[in-house]
Amino acid sequence: xxxxxxxxxxxxxxxxxxxxxxxxxxxxxxxxxxxxxxxxxxxxxxxxxxxxxxxxxxxxxxxxxxxxxxxxxxxxxxxxxxxxxxxxxxxxxxxxxxxxxxxxxxxxxxxxxxxxxxxxxxxxxxxxxxxxxxxxxxxxxxxxxxxxxx
Length: 150
What we know:
Elements: H1 3-40, H2 44-66, H3 71-94, H4 98-111, H5 116-128, H6 132-147
Helix pairs in contact: 1-2, 1-3, 2-3, 3-4, 3-5, 4-5, 5-6
């Protein structure tokens, strides 16, 4: 096989991979926007289901995303994913499903340790579940962040 043919195949493979990543980003944005409209209209169950669809899409495509070598698009994907996680946790919290809210807030905290909204929601969720040690733990993190001027 000639060097030109190999190069051409690599270019088409790279272009195909880029298009796939761009499609994932586009789908995540569409899902986030759809979920936000439902959330704003207080259709929490429907919004939660839409955000779960976005969460599942990200989980299904994470290996493609991780191998993409397209830093700017990957950053955008992670931004959308974090917004979806936050809204998913918020839906569960508003439905008083605190255990589920905790699951998604903890996933978000793994990606963004100083996410104040998630930390506060974790504090309140654990408080509502009478899990005082965990609530105190997140309360102390919040206080440390406020001492740092954040």
